[in-house]
Design a protein that fits this description.
This is DUF1080 domain-containing protein. By secondary structure, the chain is mainly β. Helix content is about 0%, strand content about 50%.
C-alpha cells in the first residue's frame, strides 16, 4: 500500500521550484465581437450571451443573444477555423470551454500544435484524440500516416454542456541567427478542470491539421471550427515576449559564529570572500553557525512590478537598491516569501544576507524573480537548495482497482471554510468516479474524478486519521437530504440533531458496493449510490413511512437553471442534477432544488 513516487524522491533530495506565470497577469481577450480573430473560410463563429447543449442531441448547441461567449455552430457548407490576428511565442493561456455532445474541436498553439477538445465524457482509457490530448503528427507515405502524439494522463472531461476550464503553459521553438531550429517547442503543462494532464512534453514538430508545417518563433492561436459545436469564454493570455532577468556573478562574504541578527556580524571582518557564478548557500564551509552576505547586479529588460521569491532554512534579509524589502528573523525551516518590487529597466543591486545558528535544520537558500514579460527564473545553484537531512516520508496512495471503501476523517470545504467530517466513508470505483459519504448526516459530501485517495496523513507515523482525494473535488456540502418543509429555504448546514437522525451503518453487496441506512423524522431510509455507464452517479432512496411534512433537499446552490427534460444546471453549468418532479426554490443566499418524498426516489449527479 505504501508507494514511493518520483516526486517524493525529489523532495528527499531538495526543494522543488515550480513557477509558471503566477505573478504576471494574463490579459483577457474580449468576446464583445470577433475583432481579435480572423476566419480562414466562411465564418461559422458568433458571439452570444448564453449557450447550452443537449445531452441527447449530437453536435447541438443553442444560443441566446448577448456578449461574452464565442460560439462555433458549423454547417455543412460553413465550417471555418478561427485564427488570432496577433502572434505569440512563449505563452500561458487559460479559457473556459463547452462541448456539445459528440463534438470535436482543437486549440492550436502557434496554429501548429493541437491540444484536442473533445466530448470524451466517460472514456476510460483516453487516447491522443481525447479531450486534453496532444494530437498526433502526420506523414504521407503515400497515404496519411499518424505518429507520436501524447494521451492525457487521466480523462478529466466533464459532461457535454458543462463549462470546463483549461490551462496551458507553452514554450515556443527556438532558432539561431540563421533560422535553424535549436530547440523544439514544449508544453510545460496542460491542466483540465484542475487535473494535470501533461508536463514537460517536447513537440518535435506540428501536429495534424496545422496552418503550416514550417515551425516559427511566433505564431497565431487557431481554434478548430470544422468538426462540431463548441463555445468559449474567459480567454486570457500572457505573452512572455521578453528576455529573462540575469544576475551578474555573485560576490559573497562569509562569517562564522552563532549570530542572532545581522548587527552581530556586519561590522566584523569576513572569514572568507569570493565570487560565485550562481547563488549557493554553501559558500560557507559549515552547515550551521554562519552568516553569508551575497551581492550581485540584477538586470531586467522592462521596468515595472516584479515578483521576487526567497526560500530559506534559517534567517535572511533582502535589499534591493539599498532598500530592505523582505526579512525573516523568525526561526524557520523552508519558509517561502514572495514580495512585489518595482524595478527600473537595466541594472539593480541585490543584497541577500543569510544567517543560520541552529543545527537542527539543514541549510537551504533559493532566490527567483518573475517579471511582467518573462517567467520565473531561479538563480540558485542546485546545491543551494540541497537538504542534507532526511527528506519527508514516502507518499502513501490508495487506488480503487475494484470498488473500495475507506473509513477516515475527511476535510471538506463548506461555505468558504474547512469542515472536518469525523464519521465518513470514502467510496472508490474503478470507473474513476468517487465520493465521500457523511455518516453524521446521510449526505454525499463531495465527489471527484481520477485517482482515489492520498492516505499519507492517515497512515504516516502516528497520523491524524484523515485522507485526501487525489483529484479536484466538487463539494456538495454535508447537510441532511431530508428536510422539514418549513426549513427548505433555510441555509443551515446541519439539522440532523433536531431531525432525530440515527445512522444504521451500511451493508455491502456482492460487488462490494455499499448501501447506507439511517433514520430521520421517523422514516427508515436506504441510500444506494451507484456509478452508471462509467459517467455519473445515480442515487436511489428507499423510504419507509415517508414523512408528510418533509421533502428532499437535493442541492443548495447560488444558481439553478432548468434545462428541460428533467435536467438542471447547477452554479453556472458546473454540474447537472437529473431528477423528475423537482422544483426550484429561492433562499436568502441562492436557490435549492427540491423533490417531494415518496417510497422510492431516484436522481442522478452528472459532471
Amino acid at each position: 500500500m505504501k508507494q514511493k513516487t518520483f516526486f517524493s524522491r525529489l523532495l528527499g533530495l531538495g526543494c522543488l521550484f515550480i513557477h509558471v506565470g503566477l505573478f504576471a497577469q494574463k490579459e483577457p481577450v474580449s468576446f464583445q465581437n470577433l475583432g481579435f480573430w480572423k476566419a480562414n473560410g466562411k465564418n461559422n463563429w458568433q458571439v452570444a450571451g448564453q449557450v447550452s447543449a443537449d445531452l441527447n442531441k449530437k453536435e447541438f448547441m443553442s444560443t441566446q443573444p448577448g456578449q461574452g461567449i464565442l460560439v462555433n455552430l458549423p454547417e455543412p457548407q460553413n465550417r471555418a477555423n478561427l485564427i488570432s490576428g496577433k502572434e505569440y511565442g512563449d505563452m500561458d493561456v487559460e479559457f473556459d470551454f463547452m462541448m456539445a455532445s459528440h463534438s470535436n474541436s482543437g486549440f492550436y498553439l502557434q496554429g501548429r500544435y493541437e491540444v484536442q477538445l473533445m466530448d470524451s465524457w466517460g472514456v476510460q482509457n483516453p487516447s491522443t484524440g481525447d479531450c486534453g490530448g496532444i494530437y498526433k503528427r502526420r506523414k504521407f507515405i503515400p497515404q496519411e500516416y499518424l505518429y507520436e502524439g501524447h494521451a492525457p494522463r487521466v480523462n478529466a472531461c466533464l459532461a457535454p454542456g458543462l463549462w470546463q476550464h483549461m490551462e496551458i503553459s507553452f514554450q515556443a521553438p527556438k532558432f539561431d541567427a540563421q533560422g535553424n531550429k535549436i530547440s523544439s517547442a514544449k508544453v510545460l503543462f496542460i491542466k483540465l478542470n484542475g487535473f494535470i494532464l501533461h508536463e514537460n512534453v517536447e513537440l518535435s514538430g506540428p501536429t495534424g491539421g496545422p496552418i503550416s508545417e514550417k515551425e516559427v518563433a511566433r505564431g497565431p492561436i487557431m481554434i478548430q471550427g470544422d468538426h462540431g459545436a463548441v463555445a468559449f469564454k474567459n480567454l486570457k493570455i500572457k505573452d512572455f515576449d521578453g528576455q529573462i532577468a540575469s544576475l551578474s556573478p555573485v560576490n559573497y562574504q562569509v562569517f562564522y559564529g552563532k549570530f542572532k541578527s545581522p548587527k552581530d556580524f556586519i561590522h566584523k571582518k569576513p572569514n572568507a570572500i569570493g565570487t560565485q557564478t550562481q547563488l549557493a548557500w554553501n559558500a560557507s564551509k559549515s552547515n550551521d553557525e554562519f552568516a553569508t552576505i551575497f551581492t550581485a547586479n540584477l538586470n531586467v529588460t522592462k521596468a515595472g512590478k516584479h515578483n521576487m521569491e526567497l526560500i530559506s532554512a534559517g534567517n535572511y534579509t533582502l535589499h534591493v537598491n539599498g532598500q530592505m524589502i523582505a526579512s525573516d528573523t523568525l526561526y524557520s525551516n523552508r519558509r517561502k516569501k514572495n514580495v512585489e518590487v518595482e524595478l527600473p529597466t537595466g541594472s539593480s543591486t541585490v543584497k541577500i544576507t543569510y544567517y543560520k545558528a541552529d543545527a537542527d535544520m539543514s541549510p537551504m537558500l533559493g532566490f527567483g524573480i518573475e517579471g511582467p514579460n518573462f517567467r520565473m527564473v531561479n538563480f540558485q545553484h542546485p546545491s543551494s537548495t540541497l537538504i542534507l537531512g532526511n527528506g519527508p516520508s514516502d507518499i502513501i496512495l490508495l487506488d480503487a482497482t475494484k470498488p473500495s471503501l475507506l473509513r477516515s476523517f475527511v476535510d471538506i470545504q463548506q461555505n468558504g471554510a474547512r469542515k472536518r467530517l469525523v464519521h465518513s466513508v470514502n467510496v472508490g470505483n474503478p470507473a474513476h468516479l468517487h465520493y465521500t459519504y457523511d455518516l453524521d448526516n446521510g449526505a454525499i459530501a463531495q465527489i471527484w474524478k481520477g485517482n482515489f485517495l492520498d492516505t499519507t496523513p492517515m497512515w504516516d507515523n502516528r497520523g491524524d486519521g484523515s485522507s485526501r482525494p487525489r483529484g479536484p473535488v466538487l463539494s456538495l456540502g454535508s447537510s441532511p437530504l431530508l428536510v422539514k418543509n418549513a426549513d427548505l429555504e433555510k441555509d443551515s448546514d446541519s439539522m440532523s440533531e433536531t431531525a432525530g437522525f440515527k445512522i444504521g451503518g451500511y451493508e455491502v453487496d456482492e460487488q462490494e458496493l455499499p448501501t447506507f441506512e439511517y433514520e430521520i423524522f421517523g422514516s427508515q431510509v436506504r441510500d444506494e449510490i451507484r456509478v452508471m455507464e462509467n459517467k455519473y452517479l445515480q442515487r436511489t432512496l428507499s423510504i419507509k413511512k415517508p414523512s408528510a411534512d418533509a421533502s428532499l433537499k437535493v442541492v443548495s446552490a447560488k444558481s439553478i437553471q432548468s434545462l428541460g427534460n428533467d435536467l438542471y444546471a447547477i452554479d453556472g453549468q458546473s454540474y447537472y442534477i437529473q431528477a423528475t418532479q423537482a422544483s426550484i426554490r429561492t433562499t436568502a443566499t441562492g436557490q435549492v432544488l427540491v423533490l417531494p418524498l415518496a417510497e422510492k426516489i431516484t436522481y442522478s449527479i452528472l459532471w
